[in-house]
């Protein structure tokens, strides 16, 4: 574990991703105190509408006179809450399914993996939009829709790892001394599959943030006046190209955070797999 961590920190690309993610976490935790005008992020002031970037408003103001800089900072918290909630829910659904399907052959394994394949066959955005239309628009709707579309990736990942590990010598030895299958799964197979789950979760954070922003852009995600990056880009469309700052800064926030998670996920994948480390040298 320490060797993998040292490799991660020595990799400049992965270190950059880690720096971006840690900075975003810091901003999300202390957002109400970092935002220069947290009260202006929700209150309209038509007299200040569509002000360009300045010393007073570093990112300018939106069409309701709200400080975009404060809304971008507060939107970081919303983006990370959605990402963490969706990925945790997807793990809680997908990991048990992958373990159950991978440990034993039979009808249960076939049914579970065919259901997983059906979810994987449908484009995630279309499925998320369809689920979002069935529920009331909001962050909760976006989280439920995204969790129900992302769990199959964890199920497939854990299924492959379980199938690989169930034939390992240490598993045969544990079964030979009478260890209960549940004990083998939870205490030995699952920890060995954890690195693959961690990599998938990290990359999934970036994917979730991007998809949640897209749902907000399409009107299925966060509802006004919630500070949301995708919603801000959608509201800015009618003011482009004159009020260029309105969409630019929320869009840059989306790009940077997604990039950070993707870079970190790639670094974790390389650090967790010595074969990939050797191939990069």
Task: List strands and helices in order, with pairings.
Elements lengths: L1 H9 L1 H18 L1 H4 L33 H36 L3 H15 L2 H11 L4 H27 L3 H8 L4 H37 L11 H8 L7 H29 L1 H7 L1
Question: How is this structure best described in words?
Answer:
It is a multi-pass membrane protein. Residues 76-265 form the ABC transmembrane type-1 domain. The chain is mainly alpha-helical and 281 residues long. The protein has a single domain (2-27, 66-280), classed as Orthogonal Bundle (MetI-like fold). 74% of the residues lie in helices and 0% in strands. The chain is elongated, with a radius of gyration of 22 Å. It starts with a helix and ends with a helix. The model has no long low-confidence stretch (mean pLDDT 84).
Q: Which characteristics define this entry?
A:
281 residues, 12 helices, 0% strand
Q: What would you say the CATH architecture is? A: Orthogonal Bundle
Query: How much β-strand is present in the residues?
Result: under 5%
Assign the CATH class. Mainly Alpha
**What is the number of beta strands?**
0
Secondary structure tally, helices? 12
- Apparent shape: elongated
Distance between the termini: 20 Å
Averaged pLDDT: 84
- By CATH, the superfamily comes out as MetI-like
Major pleated sheet: none
| Count of distinct structural domains | 1
Secondary structure category: mainly alpha
Q: Low-confidence spans: pLDDT under 50, at least 5 residues?
A: none
SSE string, helix = H, strand = E?
Answer: HHHHHHHHHHHH
Rg to the nearest angstrom? 22 Å
Question: CATH topology, which one?
Answer: MetI-like fold
Helical fraction equals over 70%
């Amino acid at each position: 574990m320490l060797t993998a961590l040292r490799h991660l920190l020595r990799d400049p690309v992965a270190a950059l991703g880690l720096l971006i993610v840690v900075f975003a976490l810091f901003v999300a935790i202390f957002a109400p105190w970092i935002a220069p005008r947290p009260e202006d992020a929700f209150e309209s002031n038509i007299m200040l509408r569509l002000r360009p970037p300045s010393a007073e408003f570093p990112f300018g103001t939106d069409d309701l006179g709200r400080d975009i800089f404060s809304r971008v900072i507060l939107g970081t918290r919303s983006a990370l809450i959605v990402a963490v909630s969706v990925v945790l829910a997807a793990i809680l659904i997908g990991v048990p399914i992958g373990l159950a399907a991978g440990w034993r052959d039979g009808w249960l394994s076939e049914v579970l993996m065919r259901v997983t394949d059906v979810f994987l066959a449908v484009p995630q955005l279309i499925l998320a939009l369809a689920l979002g239309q069935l529920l009331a628009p909001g962050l909760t709707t976006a989280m439920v829709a995204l969790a129900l579309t992302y769990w199959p990736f964890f199920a497939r990942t854990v299924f492959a790892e379980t199938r690989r590990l169930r034939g390992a010598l240490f598993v045969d030895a544990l079964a030979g001394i009478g260890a209960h299958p549940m004990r083998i799964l939870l205490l030995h197979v699952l920890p060995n599959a954890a690195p693959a789950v961690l990599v998938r979760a990290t990359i999934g954070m970036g994917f979730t943030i991007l998809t949640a922003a897209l749902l907000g852009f399409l009107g299925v995600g966060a509802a006004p006046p919630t500070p949301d990056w995708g919603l801000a880009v959608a509201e800015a469309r009618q003011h482009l190209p004159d009020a260029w700052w309105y969409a630019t800064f929320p869009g840059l926030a989306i790009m940077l955070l997604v990039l950070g998670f993707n870079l970190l996920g790639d670094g974790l994948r390389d650090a967790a797999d010595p074969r990939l480390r050797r191939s990069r040298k």
